[in-house]
């Protein structure tokens, strides 16, 4: 299909281009930007007057719940939700069931993603077999199968010798290690940030040291092994400082933050609102401010949804007994753009954190608007005020604390490989 996107404000953070141009698409590729090619006749024309034309968004951490938890969500439901959120590439952590520790599981996920056809689904291979932190997974086979990196998911490796060997093995394969930093002993003590709010609510606290101790250990091993590493979902000001110092020393480390941690703090727990139960927990206002500063100065180069769809029953019961997690695919863009509206982050930095920067972290040729690039494109309406209603999410997960929030920057169209996979009603 040949598609023309006309009169839009084209923003390509990778090249820092920002201007009103037409985009021409044929056979899934961008064939021209600006002047129309001779003989080009569009099968479909999208009038993007008043809209932002952006590269499709890239999300570094999305749990699709398939295979293993199809009763909660599936690859079909969640890639539909991704398309509705302007996301054309999602990266799946290895903690599926079965675990992504062999090529067969990679092939299963890729096959079902192709049948859905709404977004690119990339996989992270397991660092250890069955994520049990004992025997190393066959990383070479996982890389050959298409895994873009390795991770132990939400299961921290307690044994530093095993972690060191895993990093050294990954370094020989030129694979990126993706780390969710958490000291398992300190984190297991609670469910919210340790401080005045946890004391007032009578809930077990998780100290900032649960994150900073893990980051400190991992940085030492990264320096020793020379592996390229990415830190998922930072939540504390001290962790941001540790990453900044490591980058200044030349260590090959990057980091991301969830969109919800950039807006909420421990004070948003309300009256034991289980929808705000996440790991790592929402921390202090100062932590939140320093996370925003980390995005502004590039220490944190990507913003992710850390999407975890849950059943309604998973958020019922006493706070500490509920499951942590937020359904974030459809709030990733509006929450990020809300930072722009609040003058916390400029527009180009925000879009880069959702497009070209995560592409660079994954080492994929995506997240750009240029001639010859795959036509993964998101059209954004910056003036479409709407109220967040999780019950109306396309995702099977309705677990979000943002009900009633007013958002702008709604996705109007999403193109994946040159095909229109979402169009706003």
From TrEMBL:
GO terms for molecular function: allantoinase activity; dihydroorotase activity; metal ion binding. One of its GO terms (cellular component) is cytoplasm. Residues 341-422 form the Amidohydrolase domain. InterPro entries: Amidohydro_3, DHOase, DHOase/Allantoinase_Hydrolase, DHOase_cat, Metal-dep_hydrolase_composite, Metal_Hydrolase. Keywords: Hydrolase, Pyrimidine biosynthesis, Zinc. SUPFAM superfamilies: Composite domain of metallo-dependent hydrolases, Metallo-dependent hydrolases. GO terms for biological process: purine nucleobase catabolic process; pyrimidine nucleotide biosynthetic process. It comes from the Bacteria. Coiled coil: none annotated. Residues 52-235 form the Dihydroorotase catalytic domain. This is Dihydroorotase and related cyclic amidohydrolase.
